[in-house]
Amino acid sequence: MPILQVRDITKVYEGKVTNRAINQLSFDVQKGEFIAIMGPSGSGKTTLLNLISTIDKPTSGEIIFNYIKPQNLNKTDLAFFRRRQLGFVFQDFNLLPMLTVEENIILPLTLDQQPVEVMEERLKRLAQKLNLTSILYKRPNEISGGQAQRVAIARALIHEPAIILADEPTGNLDSNNSREVLELLSKINQERQATIVMVTHDPIAASFCDRVLFIKDGEYFNEINRDDRRQTFFQRILNVLSLLGGGQVGDLSSIRLP
Ligand SMILES: Nc1ncnc2c1ncn2[C@@H]1O[C@H](COP(=O)(O)OP(=O)(O)OP(=O)(O)O)[C@@H](O)[C@H]1O
User: Fold this and answer.
1) Which residues does UniProt assign to the signal peptide (predicted)?
2) Domains observed in the chain
3) Whose CA is nearest to atom 3 of ligand 1?
């Protein structure tokens, strides 16, 4: 049984001009998978992530998490579902500036009114794992971008969600920090069997995943699975991107991955 089933979803934005951003898209995500979603600008990636994250509702079709259909939940149950089942990592980190690193990380548990002992135990474990112990009492403006994204990842993990949704998590990081964050996501995926769905423009970031799903004009275009070597997976991602168009694949094809 897949942890996430996307079944024939369509999203139409109504306005002066009607825009079909997602058109009859279906795919499954298995528990413990690390999947990237790629596609040219305007292909519907953010729309898709908003639908999966229940921020928006599909015009038709359905999204099923385990056995739960969020579209059928009332507002209170939906808010509870989102808080319990989903973890979010954004491009611009989305940390609250007036809270310390520690307060930011435990925020999902605070909102859930979890006992202090649970918070302390999980915080300690995660801070050690993500190398954040020395900055727990700093505020977001006192830490680096790479550290801020590690804090955001800790916040996304602390309530042990069923799925982590990441929207361009390395979009604001330099290459070293990007690599560190991707290695961290990979490690979390392997060690905790965490399921991660990541939208990215970056073929290097996508090469850390098990599978890449490509969409074009809101429709399924192709998907490829990782093989033994990340370098060959990366080259295969570039091949599909060059078929998709809209990128600078030529500049990247000579890159050797570290
Ligand atoms: N709120 C909205 N109202 C109307 N149209 C929208 C809205 N949001 C997105 N669109 C349109 O839907 C299509 C898909 O947009 P979306 O932002 O999902 O693409 P994307 O793949 O995430 O693009 P990018 O890579 O540039 O961020 C585009 O044509 C966009 O103009």
Assistant:
1) none
2) 4-247 (3.40.50.300)
3) 13
Greater model confidence, 94 or 228 = 94
User: Could you tell which of 16, 46, 215, 219 is best to mutate to test the pocket of ligand 1, judged by most ligand atoms within 8 Å of the CB?
Assistant: 46
* Among 10, 12, 43, residue to substitute to test ligand 1 (most atoms within 8 Å of Cβ): 43
Question: What is the distance between the alpha carbons of residues 151 and 3, in angstroms, rounded to a whole number?
Answer: 26
Please report the ipTM that was assigned to this predicted complex: 0.97
Instruction: Please enumerate in sequence order all residues whose Cβ is within 8 A of that of 68, keeping only pairs 6 or more positions apart, or say none.
Output: 81, 85
- The answer to whether 136 and 102 have CB atoms below 8 angstroms apart is yes
> Does the C-beta of 216 come closer than 6 Å to ligand 1?
no
**Whether residue 249 has pLDDT greater than 90:** no
Can you tell me whether residue 12 is helix, strand or coil?
strand
Find tokens 């079709």 and name the residue: 61
Atom number of ligand 1 nearest to Cα 215: 21
Judged against a pLDDT cut of 60, whether residue 248 lies above it is answered with: no
**Residue 143 scores a pLDDT above 80:** yes
